[in-house]
Request: fold
Amino acid sequence: MLDDNELQKLLRLKRYEQPSPEYFDKFLNEFHRRQRAEMLRRSAWRIAWDRVTAFFSEQTVGSFAYAAATALVLIVAGITSLNIVTSHHEAVIAQAQPVSAQPFGLNTRVHLPDFNELSNQTAHSATASLRPRYVMDARPVSYEPTSSF
Amino acid sequence: MAEPAPVNEDTELVARAQAGDPSAFDRLVVKYSPRLYGLVYNMTSNHEDTNDLMQDIFAKAYRSIKGFRGKSSFYTWIHSIGVNMTINFLKKRGRRFQMSLDDVDANIQNDKEFIELTATSNPVREADLGELQQKLNEAMMKLSNEHRAVVTMFDIQGMPHAEIAKILGISEGTVRSRLFYAHRQLQAHLEEFRKNNI
Reply:
């Protein structure tokens, strides 16, 4: 049986399985030609995508960092949307409160809004908008015969 | 063949290529194409496929050069691209591959080691070495892609275990175990051939 040394000698011979030096002279020219052809053929989106993937493939940031960044974006988005909803609700209440035209004084009667009425109105308008419609826009079905002979 | 790459020169060329100097990248292509050719050819055993893959490897390296941060040497980086692209190619090629009889290279006949091997008295002397080498190519192609990559880099290209481990992203222990297994397979295959020809 071939021992390790003989096998390694045989394998080392394979390093001489190289093309002629002219091949490597032509290789660079061929590389330039293919590069030019590829640039003409590729779309701008494809080039941009390759650059983005190349950038991320080189980053050694761990998956934990990506997960943390995604979580942070989600949290910020959540807080922002919550703020928008809250400020909208406050604006609705502010519009419902009438502002007294009279100047305030110690003996001025302050007109406080009836919060029960206000909440009833709000609830009423909310239920009115949520109430299902039972009137159909379609033409009612007629059971009478459409033609007579 | 495994002389260490002059790192400073590569670093300078990479920096110039990243700054948009195409001639710097050309110099890297000229410098590393013979070595990469050996790697890819001994994994594919086909000159045409090797040529196409070489072009693709350098094209990918050119597109990605701006993202190269220098955490490994350019030598390791370009070899990683080469090995990964070649393994992907071989997976796609699958079993469509037919071994070419031209794969035994004529340059070997003039090689000093080849003459020495034919002249010394050993079990392989009786067999036709050209045919033995053809058999070796066949045996190489019977190895898995990962085992062939390790044999190519260690036995043919003379890279140290540590460098191979970095290129493949595996431990040195895994490199050694893959080499051991691959050598046993190659020896078994060549032994069959030797028995039939003596």
In short: Chain A touches chain B at residues 1-2, 4, 6-19, 24, 27-28, 30-31, 34-35, 38, 50-51, 54-55, 57-58, 60 (CB under 8 Å).
